[in-house]
Fold this sequence. Notes:
Largest sheet: 7 strands, parallel
Number of strands: 13
CATH class of the largest domain: Alpha Beta
Amino acid sequence: MSPIPVLFCIDSIAPGGTELQVVGLVNGLDRSLFTPHLCTIRPSEELLKQVDCPVFEMDVPKLFSRNGLKSLNMLVRYIKENNIQVVQTFFQDSTLLGLFAAKKAGVKARIISIRDMGFWRTPMTSMLMKIATGKANGFLSNSEAAALEFKNSFQVKNNIKVINNGLDTKGWGFNEPADVEPSVVLVGNLNRHVKRADIFLDAAAILSPRYPSVKWYLVGDGELKEQYRQQAVKAGIADKVIFTGRVDDVANYLYKCAIGVICSDSEGSSNALLEYMLSGCAVVATATGGTVEVIENEVNGLLVPPSSPSALAAGIGRLLSTTNVRVSMAAEARRFVEREFNWEKCIISHQDYYTEMLRK
């Protein structure tokens, strides 16, 4: 039996959690069973070079335009020429273009990937996603919370299959938290207020007088960075906060830190959270979305209410002051991620789902 051609359709391959998941999934598929293809509807960055499959790179600034219609027909032609049997889409624009093309080309399995809690939606984007949902016959999510939110928002009658994110668990070293200087890190995109780096800085301001030697790392880049720099200056903690900007070797910063923070108002399933847990950072996270499916409070991390600097500071302060708790939670966190979020398990689950969809 010949390998089944699968097309992954995404806006672009740029630094980001979903993009890294797509790269890992493409590269990890069993080539005796599946032949992966990748379609990007906008130009990508250097990360595209890591993808080991044929790439159909497009340039579609606006879907609803003459260029958008032309691109739709080009994608239909590509699907037919390569006998694509499964199309899986990520993000709204690529989902609209990819599923319309897949439906028009007669693709058997048309799958939407649901990876967040829809914090970005507007009435217009919700209407468009409702239209796209009608073109799909398969639904995948990386958390139960995101799946439920999507099912309720768009009255999806199909079952939504939940498959955990995949990570190279064997490739991550583990620093014993007792041996690490107790610094604190937040890894996140600084383009979106929903990540709440402002609360991270508020917590730093609360704790700095008590822990003057602690460094606070903000790993990431974006248009809000200067706003956060000014916040640190006004709070008198500019000398305590390190803005790293965008870095390729995130692990290098995680190994410097004893505590990793997720303080988002909304999360589907956070890759940064899993990377903290693998590297030996004890976790303090807001109890939102899929995070509560990963963190068992007081066992492999601490959960705190969202939008509360004082609660976040209390959680971080507890881990700074109690090394034994920090060490115990970090060790349990590593075991949990190794068991539940390894790439082998993620890829096999995807392959089984594709096979099941085609059998139906």
